[in-house]
Amino acid sequence: MSDVTSQETNRSAPGAFRRMRDSDLWYSFTRSPLAMLSALVVLIFVLAALFAPLIAPHDPFDPGSISILDSFLPPAWEDGGDARFLLGTDDQGRDVLSTILFGMRISLAVGFASVVFAMLLGITLGLVAGYFGGWVDSVIMRIADVQLTFPAILIALLINGVARAMAGPQSYDKVVFVVLVLSIGLSFWVQYGRTVRGSVLVEANKEYVLAARLIGLGPWTIMFKHVLPNVLGPVLVIATINLALAIITEATLSFLGVGVPPTQPSLGTLIRIGNDFLFSGEWWITIFPGITLAILALTVNLLGDWLRDALNPKLR
């Protein structure tokens, strides 16, 4: 029985790859050098973050391997630089390159998790609002309208501040990752909700939805099994663009001192630490994390722009 299953899997895998290769999306991707370059850069950054413990020259979170005598060393090509620290060291003697690799792990993890949370919340509320309508739609959309009047960073700061007050200074560092994900995710769900609601209003009167109601399928089955696949295109575009916004928002929160602690810094924390020494000549502490954050956000945004154009039927 297992041999039959493995043979079926082997036959289906090439078929799935062939369908992906022959799809319009893949054709558009291979014809866009900018999208391919952006995808390659994002892939390199993600792999570097995932395998940071293996490829980082030093462990910046191991106090036993850090010496304060190595603090403020410039990059290796500068006068006074040390070949052990390619991009120099920070005020604690930590290798800047290693802190960037480990910092990307936190930034990417918070970004991905907050986007997934915002997607799940926004899609669910958008489906419910668009399918049921009436007072349910009015309540959800009025909440969305009120939230749109506030900047996302302000909402994230408010949620973060409330969580910090409830958890207390001792317990906050243990739940800071979850708090960041919730605060950023709750700031971005409105875009998914409004987009999905508009698409559901169009799809709800189509024949396949009416046929599903006729055969007795429940509303939740219709929403998630039949309507949802037909409204995912715009959602994927929003998610790609929001990933860059989520990473920047996390960096902003950390720069303001309400993000992850300095003992486990993200890119935003590294920029904030280096900013204190920027005008005293130690420019490398903040410049290199800043360049990394800018390249990461730019390439993700370029991928989002390509995906938006590739999924737009008017541009085909």
Automatic annotation (TrEMBL):
InterPro entries per UniProt: BP-dependent_transpt_permease, MetI-like, MetI-like_sf, OppC_N
Primary location: membrane
Example GO BP: transmembrane transport
Pfam families reported in the protein's UniProt record: BPD_transp_1, OppC_N
Keyword vocabulary terms for this entry: Cell membrane, Membrane, Transmembrane, Transmembrane helix, Transport
Signal peptide (UniProt feature, chain positions): none
Compartments reported by the entry: Cell membrane
Gene3D superfamilies: MetI-like
Span of domain ABC transmembrane type-1: 104-304
Cellular component terms per the entry's GO annotation: plasma membrane
Transmembrane segments annotated in the record for this chain: 34-56, 108-133, 139-163, 175-192, 208-228, 235-258, 283-307
Source taxon at top rank: Bacteria
Annotated membrane topology: Multi-pass membrane protein
Entry-linked PANTHER family: ABC TRANSPORTER PERMEASE PROTEIN, OLIGOPEPTIDE TRANSPORT SYSTEM PERMEASE PROTEIN APPC
Protein family according to the UniProt entry: Belongs to the binding-protein-dependent transport system permease family.
Designated name of the protein: Transport system permease
Species in which this protein is naturally found: Nitratireductor pacificus pht-3B
